[in-house]
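It is time I had a proper look at our fold encoding. Can you supply me with one protein entry, sequence and fold together? It will help me judge whether the discrete encoding reads sensibly. Leave the record below and I will have a look:
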Amino acid sequence: MSRQLITFQIGEQVLGVDIMAIREIRAWSPATPLPNVPPHVRGVVNLRGVVLPVLDLSHRLGWGMTDPSSRHVIIVVRIGDQLQGLIVDAVNDIVTVPADGMQPLPDIGETPAANYLEGLATIDQRLILILALERLTDPSMPLADAA
């Protein structure tokens, strides 16, 4: 069965997430910092009365901290029973991945990014990393040491 993904950029890397997990895409607005949270949790924002955590996806994947600006966006996703915001550089488009278009990750060892990926897909000669959203907030997953 094919899957529809929203694709987005973090630096030069294209990532995708299942379209059914997306609740909203909104312009960057500064998050209110919280004390004693992991470094990839940039704070919280109020989304029409719902306070949701905002994760620095680049940092969570071990690719370094994002310095958010007006060009960044927050993708609001449902992970489990909670809404979360993901800081990304830009949203690209909606793609359909055929059932045979998903590939498992090659054995690349224990890297922070590999822990949060479900697989790979190739669309129009572009390699897309497919996020495993539920792992982003799993407290048993290792924290990235990237600065």
